[in-house]
Specification:
Helices cover about 30% and strands about 20% of the residues. The chain has about 750 residues and is α/β, with parallel strands linked by helices. It is globular. The chain binds beta-D-glucopyranose.
Length: about 750
């Protein structure tokens, strides 16, 4: 057969296969729609309102009452019910004893692992590796589905510019592009390839929308977000989640521009449903419907139910405004029956898609997979790839495994619960391997001199300092593990100052004065203002709250089994007074530069009236952050060269290739995360000084180099200008580099 015929034939086979698969999925969804309608017809109003109500067993009036309510069809979903026996028992009541036999949807927060705990999501984001993140979420789904959990309230994809906000730990950081790529990976991992597989779990993109912009970083607070920032930044990862097939969304607690997110028709109905065509289910956040009364947006529960349903919230989490008021609202003609029916359709559709009607029960055998060694091994890989090397003076790291003695110091060296981080309900401290355990195993216990120095991260008691310093002096090197206890980040756990808590800075200073090589490893739920210790320590490794296997992962890096390779998913500020500081800010009319800013200490005591330069900076902090977005060092050195563009210009429908050479000129094989940034120089609204548009994590062998190629499409440069989405002709800068502050520069135009 000629090659021409072969290729025609294979094209035909390909198109036929596509046609068949389209037909299959169309048929499948048609079938689901028919089943939804048939079931809806049989439902009473009570049944419908029941489906729209989700309860936590702790608020259901006791076990017997919960069972009765399930039997009566009063709940469509239960959150925080888990364990094979309990779930199967409750499901049996729903299937066999309720009038219509509609299965329950069992939900729980499985945010960064179920029993095998992965680094906090902010840490996972520092890996810039969607593949390993996807696998981590697949493992979480396998583990939690084995306990009957078929719906997780993840991924949390709130962009934030505020490290004071405790929930920064749960998201992917500040950048809409990075967060979107990871959001897709997370949804794909949670839901798997086949929604009816027993290990598939429904994802829930949360919190829609803007929750991460709470004023002052105080949780649950008001958010004011302009429409361009909403659409160009905040909504991007949500759109990616929707496109990846996320079955559900959760509305947020926040008041968005004067309208609570849970009663927000603009975001929920106009954008999510109409513009994006989302057909899944929207659940409220915990009591966020009734909280619209405290917001001063609704006078009472009846109005709250009315506004939430009208805006597009299908299911109410934990409060009962729907159960208590929808009937009256219908009777009074305030809401249309269609609103209720559509909400129920959205809920049933998810249950049908998950195959719950066919397979409502959990197989007890499935739980054997929990904490599988392969899962733990992956947790170690993710923790390793998440850690970011921030300083390495004179190649202090890696330490040699032949070292005679190491002083292991600090409140987090052996703190198994803290290393798991926030939002861990099911992971257990006893399954954590701490750095102390891992280092003893690696080096032999006799080489490790351990003392805490401070009992916990907030400890201010310096009584152990002298002993600690003495022990450090007897050792060849010091490795200090500190940062924040897990309880200092997470929901409701916000801080005003984000420095190292307790007397840790002082202890680090005392250790630095010994003159011994000092490595500081930070385990924390947020980017801390670590300027002091960054100046004092010889090497600094940022390990976040790294999960069950944080210990071995950090030991791998400290002793050079692998090089650190993570990069910061957020800008590190010098202190709270620099917040917000995100790399893609717009320019001012008076940008500061190294030449035109005035450090506070250089100002003479007696001054004429002056503005000290009329530029945009702070006298104490200057105009640059502590560390830029995308930053991260390696044990090896990467050299960037030969930036080339395939064309100097493209049309608004075109694309160009941008490439550069990256050489590993050091003495170790290692991964580098190569980043592509652009700047749209002039726009119909002002444009950010830089925007991430691509990245690649590549392994480069020592002495080798790799050509990194990015394809940039004009449509990647589209933005919302306050009126419409536009791709505007004009001049653009482009950079390929190792972080947001450095890179090879080129330029192109769009015509
Ligand atoms: C949080 C949600 C979470 C829900 C259920 C709320 O307080 O904001 O993110 O999914 O509780 O636990």
């Amino acid at each position: 057969m000629s090659s021409y015929k072969l290729s025609v034939l294979s094209s035909l086979i390909f198109f036929a296969a596509v046609a068949i698969s389209c037909n299959h999925s169309e048929k499948k969804s048609d079938k689901i729609e028919i089943r939804v309608e048939q079931l809806l017809e049989k439902m009473t109003l009570d049944d419908k309102i029941g489906q729209m109500t989700q309860v936590d067993p702790g608020f259901a009036g006791g076990d017997e009452q919960l069972k009765k309510s399930v039997r009566d069809g009063r709940y469509g979903s239960i959150l925080n019910l888990w364990g094979v026996e309990k779930v199967n028992e409750m499901q049996k009541i729903a299937i066999e004893e309720s009038r219509l036999g509609i299965p329950l949807l069992i939900g729980r927060d499985v945010i960064h692992g179920y029993r095998t705990i992965f680094p906090i999501p902010l840490g996972m984001a520092a890996s810039w590796n969607p593949e390993i993140v996807k696998k981590a979420f697949r493992i979480s789904a396998i583990e939690c589905s084995s306990q009957g959990i078929k719906w997780t309230f993840a991924p949390m994809i709130d962009i934030t510019w505020d490290p004071r906000w405790g929930r920064i730990a749960e998201g992917c950081g500040e950048d809409p592009y990075l967060a979107s790529t990871l959001s897709k990976a997370m949804v794909e991992g949670i839901q798997g390839d086949n929604l009816t597989d027993p290990t598939a779990v429904a994802a829930c993109a949360k919190h829609f929308a803007g929750y991460g912009f709470s004023e002052g970083g105080r949780d649950y607070n008001t958010t004011y977000i302009s429409e361009p920032v909403l659409r160009n930044v905040v909504l991007k990862p949500f759109k990616a989640a929707k496109d990846a097939g996320a079955l559900t969304f959760m509305s947020g607690f926040n008041d968005l521009n004067g309208v609570p997110a849970t009663g927000n028709e603009f975001t929920l109905r106009q954008i999510l449903r109409k513009e994006w065509g989302f057909q899944g289910m929207v659940v409220s956040d915990w009591s966020s419907i009734s909280e619209m009364i405290s917001h001063g947006f609704c006078a009472n529960e009846k109005e709250a139910a009315y506004k939430a349903l009208t805006a597009g919230v299908d299911m109410e989490m934990s409060s009962f405004t729907y159960a208590g008021n929808l009937k009256t609202l219908l009777k009074e003609g305030k809401i249309d029956q269609k609103l209720v029916d559509d909400a129920v359709r959205n809920i049933l559709r998810v249950k049908f898609k998950l195959g719950l009607f066919e397979n409502p029960y959990v197989n007890p055998e499935a739980q054997k997979q929990v904490l599988n060694p392969e899962f733990l091994d992956h947790a170690r890989t993710v923790a390793r790839e998440s850690a970011v090397l921030l300083k390495n003076k004179n190649k202090t790291l890696p330490l040699s495994p032949k070292i005679h003695s190491v002083a292991v110091i600090g409140p987090l060296a052996d703190s198994p619960r803290d290393q798991l981080g926030t939002w861990v309900f099911d992971g257990k401290a006893e399954n954590s391997v701490t750095p102390l355990t891992a280092l003893k195993e690696l080096l032999g216990a006799d080489k490790v001199n351990y003392i805490k120095g401070l009992q916990y991260s907030r400890d201010k008691n310096k009584s152990e300092f002298a002993k600690t310093v003495a022990l450090a002096k007897q050792s060849d090197a010091i490795v200090y593990f500190g940062g924040e206890e897990w309880i200092l980040s997470g929901e409701g756990q916000c801080r005003g100052e984000i420095n190292m808590p307790g007397a840790q800075d002082e202890l680090i200073e005392a250790l630095a004065s010994t003159g011994k090589p000092l490595v500081v490893v930070i385990m924390a739920g947020r980017p801390l203002a670590i300027g002091n210790l960054l100046a004092k320590a010889d090497a600094v490794l940022y390990g976040w709250h790294g999960g069950s296997m944080a210990g071995p992962a950090l030991a791998d890096l400290i002793f050079g089994k692998e090089s650190p390779s993570g990069k910061l998913p957020v800008t590190f500020v010098k202190g709270s007074g620099q917040i917000p500081f995100y790399y893609y800010h717009n320019n001012t009319g008076r940008p500061a530069s190294a030449k035109n800013w005035t450090p506070m200490d250089s100002i003479p005591v007696v001054n004429p009236q002056t503005s000290l330069g009329y530029k945009s900076f702070q006298l104490d902090y200057g105009f640059t952050p502590l560390l830029p977005f995308g930053f991260g060092l390696s044990y090896t050195t990467f050299n960037y060269s030969d930036l080339k563009l395939s064309a100097m210009s493209m049309s608004t429908t075109g694309s160009i290739e941008i490439k550069a050479n990256v050489a590993n000129s050091g003495d170790m094989d290692a991964d580098e995360i190569v980043q592509l940034y652009i700047r749209d120089r002039v726009g119909s609204i002002t444009r950010p000084v830089k925007e991430l548009k691509g990245y690649k994590r590549v392994t480069i062998k020592q002495g080798k180099n790799v050509e990194i190629i990015f394809r940039l499409e004009a449509k990647d440069l589209e933005f919302f200008n306050g009126k419409a989405n536009v791709i505007e002709p004009g001049e653009f800068d482009v950079w390929i580099g190792p972080n947001s502050a450095e890179g090879l520069h080129g330029e192109f135009t769009i015509h």
